[in-house]
């Protein structure tokens, strides 16, 4: 364990009591497995920072194991996040159903999806990956400094010698004051530039689009998301660093409600522009969803603390250009796969972009659900890395990869087996006909081949950026995968159409995942890459068997709803039985846990 200043900061951060969303800490149950936090200097035993009782949290142990009670907290946080993620996914399907019902797979829906490309990239850069990878470590460091200052203040109040520091502002508020105003100015300028340059953006993204003027109008309506998504991502990173996960998980619920409401209310008047306006309204609702909790954690006025002389006066050491550049390049390269897809699809017949979009949105639902595990545990990995506890970081990352892989591969098996039934149940109504269902289902099955790669890229990128040190390897890996996607796309699109584009996506993202898996163990966290690959290979084998079984059984039931309902039972059963036969440790452990729970319940 490091004895440098970084280690000291990580130890102070471990004393930060994790609030469980909007519930007051006094309402949290104290469990025997989760003793109170270690007291800081001058604090009475059982007290958290500032003298408040810290419940359901524990200090970092000296060994590589996780803190007692931390696992239960993460499990509850993951469960709450899962509920909101599923709700957002369901509303996302309702959103896509509304667009498909009113506009089908047509020139109008293609124009909207081209305009939606910018918000999708902004969401990845400003909410899901880029902002979180930068700001979670920065806020964690600020919280560490606040905990040190509160401990020093408590020590002086108990009659201990003064630390020799001078009064200073709250480090967290100092970080916000130094970064948020500048960020808002930059984002407002970006939104204004996008509105002015919308015609040029549309020509670059989709040179073969049949109705570019409609796409330009939609792009100008959605341009506001450059600002609103940036503020949303900033709030989300701050809340997650405070271990408040539910409001950030609920932003996409609010976002989809805005799109659905505007589409239903105004589609007969504005056409597809109503959906674009809904994107802007939904993005404003994302900010309002998090604002009350943020104001509670960052009140307008806070007392000034004692600032130790040995501390640096820098407010955001983790937000320098050397750290910012590789994160931005990685995220932009990752989202550029969508740009490549839509650029190539714009040269195909009308509706190709829509088929790709519907297939991708549905196929990636298992990937989104699997990555919520890594989202919740990212602060834990960042803390272990800052503390120099590489063994704990290794255990956490390997566990996350196994769990995320099992979730996404089970979803992959369902997609492989029942893609036509899924699309028919979700979208086949109104302007979306049988031909659209067949084309979208074919693409979705091809996309499924790359779901594990997408999941691994999202899971493996977080440890690279968790320490706050500049690292260019993820950007290199993602750039390599993007080049593979572009090359394969140009080679396959002319002959295979949208299926060729989906194949190129799967090959490119899998290349990136392989490079990240190989590089993580030698550069950041000493994971056992061969053991992880073997475990994922067994799960992939179970997914292939379950998917093939579902594919064969789906033809036996003509009704799509009944067939899909049967598949939701058949595919998981075959998946877990095959996993047992292949001796997958993750499947064995999960089934043993379920058996033990039922046994204890009796």
What does this structure look like?
- The protein has 602 residues and is mostly helical.
- The chain folds into 2 domains: 1-43 and 98-312, no CATH class; 326-540, no CATH class.
- The protein is 74% helix and 1% strand.
- It is built from 22 helices and 2 strands.
- It has helices at 5-13, 70-103, 107-128, 130-157, 171-196, 198-205, 212-222, 225-241, 246-249, 251-270, 273-297, 321-345, 352-363, 365-386, 390-427, 434-448, 451-465, 473-496, 498-523, 529-554, 560-581, 585-601, and strands spanning 166-168, 305-307.
- It has a two-stranded antiparallel ribbon.
- Helix 15 packs parallel to helix 20, helix 18 (473-496) runs antiparallel to helix 19 and helix 20 (529-554) runs antiparallel to helix 21 (560-581).
- The longest helix is centred in the C-terminal third of the chain and has 38 residues, at 390-427.
- The chain is globular.
- It starts with a helix and ends with a helix.
- Residues 1-66 and 308-318 have low confidence and may be disordered.
Short summary:
One of its GO terms (cellular component) is plasma membrane. By secondary structure, this protein is an all-alpha fold. 74% of the residues lie in helices and 1% in strands.
SSE topology:
Elements: H1 5-13, H2 70-103, H3 107-128, H4 130-157, E1 166-168, H5 171-196, H6 198-205, H7 212-222, H8 225-241, H9 246-249, H10 251-270, H11 273-297, E2 305-307, H12 321-345, H13 352-363, H14 365-386, H15 390-427, H16 434-448, H17 451-465, H18 473-496, H19 498-523, H20 529-554, H21 560-581, H22 585-601
Antiparallel strand pairs: 1-2
Helix pairs in contact: 1-4, 2-10, 2-14, 3-7, 3-8, 3-11, 3-12, 3-13, 4-8, 5-8, 6-7, 7-11, 8-11, 10-11, 12-18, 12-19, 13-16, 14-15, 14-17, 15-16, 15-17, 15-20, 15-21, 16-19, 17-19, 18-19, 20-21
């Amino acid at each position: 364990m490091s004895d440098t200043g970084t280690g000291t900061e990580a130890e102070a951060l471990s004393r930060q009591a994790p609030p469980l969303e909007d519930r007051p800490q006094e309402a949290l149950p104290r469990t025997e497995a989760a003793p109170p936090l270690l007291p800081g200097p001058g604090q009475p035993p059982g007290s958290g920072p500032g003298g408040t009782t810290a419940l359901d949290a524990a200090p970092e142990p000296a060994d590589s194991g996780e803190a007692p009670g931390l696992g239960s907290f993460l499990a509850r946080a993951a469960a709450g996040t899962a509920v909101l993620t599923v709700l957002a996914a369901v509303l996302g399907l309702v959103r896509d159903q509304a667009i498909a019902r009113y506009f089908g797979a047509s020139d109008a829906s293609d124009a909207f999806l081209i305009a939606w490309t910018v918000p999708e990239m902004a969401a990845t850069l400003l909410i899901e990956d880029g902002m979180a990878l930068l700001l979670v470590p920065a806020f964690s460091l600020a919280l560490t400094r606040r905990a040190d200052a509160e401990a020093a203040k408590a020590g002086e109040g108990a009659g201990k010698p003064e630390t020799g520091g001078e009064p200073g502002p709250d480090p967290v508020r100092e970080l916000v004051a130094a970064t948020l105003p500048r960020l808002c100015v930059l984002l407002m300028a970006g939104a204004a530039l996008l509105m002015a340059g919308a015609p040029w953006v549309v020509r670059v993204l989709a040179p073969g689009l049949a109705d570019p003027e409609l796409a330009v109008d939609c792009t100008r309506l959605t341009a506001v998301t450059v600002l609103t998504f940036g503020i949303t991502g900033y709030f989300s990173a701050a809340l997650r660093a405070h271990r408040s996960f539910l409001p950030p998980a609920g932003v996409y619920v609010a976002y989809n409600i805005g799109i659905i409401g505007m589409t239903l209310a105004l589609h007969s008047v504005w056409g597809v522009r109503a959906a674009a306006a809904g994107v802007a309204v939904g993005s404003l609702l994302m900010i309002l969803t998090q604002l009350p909790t943020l104001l509670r954690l960052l009140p307008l006025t806070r007392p000034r603390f004692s600032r130790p002389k040995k501390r640096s006066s820098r407010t955001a050491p983790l937000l320098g250009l050397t750290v910012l550049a590789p994160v931005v390049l990685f995220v932009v390269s990752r989202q550029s796969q969508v740009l490549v897809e839509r650029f190539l699809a714009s040269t195909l017949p009308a509706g190709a972009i829509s088929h790709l979009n519907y297939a991708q949105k549905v196929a990636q639902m298992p990937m989104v659900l699997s990555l919520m595990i890594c989202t919740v545990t990212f602060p834990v990995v960042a803390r272990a890395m800052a503390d120099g506890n590489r063994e704990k970081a290794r255990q956490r990352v390997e566990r996350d990869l196994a769990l995320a892989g099992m979730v996404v591969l089970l979803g992959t098996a369902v997609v492989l087996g029942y893609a036509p039934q899924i699309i028919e149940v979700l979208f086949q109504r109104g302007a979306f006909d049988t031909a659209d269902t067949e084309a979208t289902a074919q693409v979705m099955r091809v996309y499924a081949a790359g779901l594990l790669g997408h999941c691994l890229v999202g899971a493996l990128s977080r440890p690279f950026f968790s320490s706050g040190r500049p690292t260019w390897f993820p950007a290199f890996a993602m750039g390599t995968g993007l080049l593979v996607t572009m090359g394969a796309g140009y080679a396959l699109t002319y002959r295979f159409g949208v299926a060729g584009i989906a194949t190129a996506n799967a090959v490119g993202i899998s290349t990136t995942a392989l490079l990240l898996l190989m590089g993580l163990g030698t550069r950041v966290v000493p994971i056992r890459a061969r053991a992880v690959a073997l475990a994922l290979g067994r799960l992939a084998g179970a997914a292939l068997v379950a998917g093939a079984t579902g594919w064969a059984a789906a033809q036996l039931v003509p009704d799509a709803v009944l067939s899909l309902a049967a598949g939701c039972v058949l595919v998981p059963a075959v998946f877990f039985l095959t996993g047992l036969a292949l001796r997958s440790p993750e499947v064995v452990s999960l089934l043993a846990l379920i058996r033990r729970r039922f046994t204890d319940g009796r």
